[in-house]
């Protein structure tokens, strides 16, 4: 069992109204010191087998075609818990 | 400049319709091998100064009061790019 995480964030040049809303709420709640907030999505994909390079390539295709909108979003793919083989 | 990431995911016992929708779409798009998908949120908070333990405590408070709903969601706080001091 292995978990691959796809993080999808709005591109830097794209407005992020959700992040701005959080940014506006922080001082009202008494929090200071944050200079910027961006909000994106996180997908946790579980795989039964081992996460090979072929699996990661497939995850990148999922990220590009289904999980993100490449026009306005960037994504990163990371393996969170790789299967340990004895 | 340092970045702290707050990842907010639905608790395991909570239904996740967005994740289920992704899970249902994957085979239709020709992707196989994924046994489960969960969808959550990712917040990137930028700080001007150093990320001290006090800052991380404050981020945990933000996560509990504003960024997540502790009844149905779990969160994790990670420092992504700590400021390097010469």
UniProtKB/TrEMBL annotation, chains A, B:
Q: Which reaction does it catalyse?
A: N(2)-formyl-N(1)-(5-phospho-beta-D-ribosyl)glycinamide + L-glutamine + ATP + H2O = 2-formamido-N(1)-(5-O-phospho-beta-D-ribosyl)acetamidine + L-glutamate + ADP + phosphate + H(+)
UniProt-listed Enzyme Commission number(s) = 6.3.5.3
User: What is one Pfam family matched by this protein?
Assistant: PurS
Task: Give the UniProt subcellular location, in the record's own words.
Answer: Cytoplasm
Q: What are the GO MF terms of this UniProt record?
A: phosphoribosylformylglycinamidine synthase activity
What Gene3D superfamilies has UniProt attached to this entry?
Answer: Phosphoribosylformylglycinamidine synthase subunit PurS (3.30.1280.10)
Quote the pathway field: Purine metabolism; IMP biosynthesis via de novo pathway; 5-amino-1-(5-phospho-D-ribosyl)imidazole from N(2)-formyl-N(1)-(5-phospho-D-ribosyl)glycinamide: step 1/2
UniProt xrefs under InterPro entries:
PurS, PurS-like_sf
Instruction: Kindly state which keywords UniProt assigns to this record, in alphabetical order.
Output: ATP-binding, Cytoplasm, Ligase, Nucleotide-binding, Purine biosynthesis
Sequence similarity: Belongs to the PurS family.
Question: How does the record describe its quaternary structure?
Answer: Part of the FGAM synthase complex composed of 1 PurL, 1 PurQ and 2 PurS subunits.
Q: What does this protein do?
A: Part of the phosphoribosylformylglycinamidine synthase complex involved in the purines biosynthetic pathway. Catalyzes the ATP-dependent conversion of formylglycinamide ribonucleotide (FGAR) and glutamine to yield formylglycinamidine ribonucleotide (FGAM) and glutamate. The FGAM synthase complex is composed of three subunits. PurQ produces an ammonia molecule by converting glutamine to glutamate. PurL transfers the ammonia molecule to FGAR to form FGAM in an ATP-dependent manner.
By what name is this protein known? Phosphoribosylformylglycinamidine synthase subunit PurS
Its ancestry begins with: Bacteria, Bacillati, Actinomycetota, Actinomycetes, Propionibacteriales
